[in-house]
Write a structure and sequence with these properties.
about 350 residues, alpha+beta, 4-stranded antiparallel beta sheet, two-stranded parallel ribbon, 13 helices, 6 strands, elongated
């Protein structure tokens, strides 16, 4: 941990680092490729919608010696539809069959009682109408739209509209990848999936806002100096918060991975699969997009501004002039600018006045 802490300090001071901004085309291309794959998966395979959305019946049986696979065969023979069977902790089974009405549900219940060797009154049957799923889906879309609008407004006020746009693109990127992986894996989309998707939105923004806050402080008074371009400061902001982003993401992923691989895979808990897969993929995609998508996109948008273009020309001209004279880069001055930017941020947070730049 001490080595990781030392690495974080060195990244923050700029002693080491990776050129995320300079290699942004690689990350853009990779993200586009993953997104296209996700969209193709949705188009070709579609989503495996749960019974809550397509309607049908859910049968819960008491403890039985019949295996899950055998029970699935019984259910499909009795109903004529595909069935999803999950083992319960008490030894019973949860059988989902889509597309059943009340009369057909009663018939399937009777057949299952015979096949499973239990009395019919011991099998609990619940009929779910598709309209209920439609209402959930409509509310989920409404919640997503409201969330997106509020995020854009907040980020535009707290930072600037370019950062709001970049964060919105990163969110859409994360949701598309998560839904696409759901389609490719074939997991059932249930209410738990919707909950997981809505939950990852906040996680996806967390690392992005951390980097944006560092970038905002680091670029105060940027046009009054000729040492750094906007993209270079953005790159140092990513490197400076990199270890923190990795730590928070790993800490968040560990319990979710436990739910997914142990709770869902080993114990066979279906609802845990539904929630944990969306959380796991969303958390990983959110950490990726905050580093490789959101901040580089902000840098691209900012570098289009006339002031940033002029700054870049001045910075490059100064470096070219120094190189022509055989002079070393003015490292001390660059550090002075960073130190002063940090003081500006600290005083701004305390409500004090920021000093004027003397560079």
């Amino acid at each position: 941990m001490s080595k990781l802490g030392n690495l974080g300090a060195r990244l923050h001071r700029g002693e080491v680092g990776y050129d995320f901004i300079g290699n942004r085309k690689i990350w853009y291309g990779l993200s586009i490729l993953i997104t296209i794959t996700a969209i193709l998966g949705l188009t070709v395979r579609g989503l495996n919608m749960g019974i809550e959305f397509q309607g049908g019946a859910v049968f819960t049986t008491p403890k039985t010696s019949v295996s899950v696979s055998q029970a699935q065969e019984y259910a499909e023979e009795a109903s004529g539809h595909d069935a999803i069977v999950q083992g319960l902790g008490n030894g019973g089974l949860r059988i989902q069959v889509g597309g059943l009405d009340t009369a057909k549900s009663d018939q399937v219940r009777t057949e299952l009682a015979k096949d499973l060797g239990v009395t019919e009154d011991k099998i609990a049957a619940e009929l779910v109408g598709p309209s209920w799923g439609e209402q959930i889906a409509a509310k989920a879309w409404t919640g997503l739209a409201v969330f997106m609008i509020l995020v854009v407004i907040y980020l535009a006020i707290a930072f600037e509209w370019r950062m709001a746009v970049a964060a919105l693109v990163a969110l859409i990127h994360d949701i598309t990848i998560t839904v696409g992986i759901y389609s490719l894996v074939g997991f059932e989309v249930t209410v738990g999936t919707v909950i997981g998707l809505l939950t990852i939105l906040g996680y996806s923004l967390y690392d992005t806002v951390v980097v944006f806050d560092s970038l905002k402080e680091g670029t105060k008074g940027i046009t009054k100096q000729t040492r750094w371009t906007y993209s270079e400061i953005a790159n140092r902001s990513i490197n400076g918060t990199l270890v923190r982003s990795i730590n928070t993401t790993v800490v968040a992923l560990l319990p979710v991975a436990g739910l997914l691989f142990i709770g869902g895979g080993v114990l066979g808990a279906g609802m845990l699969n539904d929630i944990s897969l969306s959380l796991f993929v969303g958390l990983a995609a959110g950490a990726y997009s905050s580093i490789f998508i959101a901040t580089p996109l902000v840098a691209d948008l900012k570098e289009r501004e006339p002031a940033m273009k002029a700054l870049k020309k001045r910075v490059l001209a100064k470096r070219a002039n120094a190189a022509a004279k055989g002079e070393p880069l003015d490292v001390d001055e660059r550090d002075d600018f960073e130190d002063e930017a940090a003081v500006v941020g600290q005083r701004a947070r305390r409500g004090g006045r920021a000093p004027e730049h003397r560079g």
